[in-house]
Amino acid sequence: MTTAIRRSPVLVAMCIAALFMVIPFLIVAVNAVKSPTEYSRNGPLSLPEGLYLDGLKDFWERVDYGQKLINSLLISGAVAVLAAVLSILNAYAIGIGRIKGRTWVLAFFVLANMLPQEALVYPIYYLSKEVGLYDTRLSVIIVFTVIQAAFGTYLLSSVLGQFPREIIEAARIDGADKWQVLWRIVVPVSRPTIGVLLVFFFIWTWNEFLLPLVMLISNDNQTVSVALGVLQGQRLMDATMTNAAALLGVLPAIVFFLVFQRTLTRGIAVGAVK
Amino acid sequence: MTVTVEQDGGRRVTGRHHPATRSPRRPRDSYALFLLPGVLAFLAIVVVPFLMNTGVSFTDWRGVGSPEWTGLANYRDLLDDSEFWASFRHSLFMVVAMAAVPTVVGLVLAAALFDYIGRHYGSRVVAVLRACLYLPQVLPIAVAGIVWSWILAPDNGSLNELLKAIGLGSWQQDWLGDPDLALYSVMGVMVWVQIGFPLVVFMAGLQRVDPQLHEAAELDGAGWWRRFWHITLPQIRPETYVVLVWCTIAALKVFGAVYVLTKGGPGGATNVPSYFSFTTFFEKTQVGYGAAISTVLTVIILVLALIGLKFQTRAEDAEEGGRT
User: In which family does this protein belong, per the annotation (chain B) (predicted)?
Assistant: First the structure.
């Protein structure tokens, strides 16, 4: 160990830093499979003696976790697709159509993207009650489609601004109208960027907390984040249940991370400096 | 994040453009139709609620009945409200935890990964380490809050147990329940959450830096630190602005972590503007007052965003000018 430190101190330091980031996940996983008696006897730091899955099962049934997963998947999936479509339409007009006043339109979308949700949440809550959409998954889908599309419009517009115009001109000469150019040429060519957007929108929406917390009050409509956050806020969970909750909350995130890792890390760079 | 690319469409694009291929006015304008759904949706979901919120901030309203116009009374009350000032003071702590510290640490980690680990141990090792450091970023903040509130729990929490196990039992604390400590504990969690973002952005930025610059400096006898300071840092200045602005704005918006970890407590020790406006809206139902809090927050964020965009645009222009 000491020779390893002496030979490659930077690598050892980086590994320790990485371990520090991952350790909370490991502790949660280890403790989620302990029985309550084992937990109170040995504390959180011991390795589990066996695989005790009743805690996870109890928690799953008590909060109807399957339903929460379906809600989150439905909301995030719908938002990802709808927000991408909306972004494409906006960006087509701004980036390729070069409509008049596009700088202002774009600046408007950028600022809308920065707006804190606190400044929208009460009117949205109030208006959704007025139109009878309060406590429906549809209301959350609509709101996040628009909010996410602000970022998508911004990113796609700058990508489409550099779209080779010769291709579009050629298609127009061949008689394609704007709608056909968009779906047959622009969208297929921009598929990598659109892929990044879909992944971002999905994960961002999955992780959203404030608006779903306000909008989704009934158990049948809540997302994973809201259900877990509310449970934690009520301070009613014992240690085993907390761990079950944490593990079941962490697992989908890790699955998405492993599936989308490449798109995510590359996409952030594109999104940040474009 | 920048609007440079689109600026006036002219400056950068005209060079590449043949005047002959430019489409005539008439068909170009019908592109505006594609913007119609987006504009309508934004009016309904962003613009109208935002204007309503701003309007309500000048009234006394409990969420039912009609709002009563009170002018600037809410804002005058805010100035005398110690809770309001405390929440913004805590925001500054969050900026340190979510913008300042992650930017500096992220820069060092990114440089170490890119320059040193990448060169000596290969890109595989870099990818694995980067993935570990980035992982907390994809976790829902509510879940991160559950994980940490359990680790930091006073009885049987992992941190306290660990301290006991290594003989530092006297260091045990009620990390989230002690008014003097809670804010720092939340800050620690936020550093953990945030660090992956600057790291990934900086690593992408470092790939842009021309390796020949480093080689030339190395031949001239410049050490790692001097090369980092004089070559790497100036080269990735645009990324640094982006990261600082985004992280600062994220820090001002912190809500979920506070809701799950401390609920603003103990005794308001970790209250932040967004949580303060949330409780004012939905628990105290002083809608007008809550709207005033969120309006102040919005103004601060938009001003910061504009300053940030300006700085970043300038940095990128300077960089581009330097290259050509």
Answer: Belongs to the binding-protein-dependent transport system permease family.
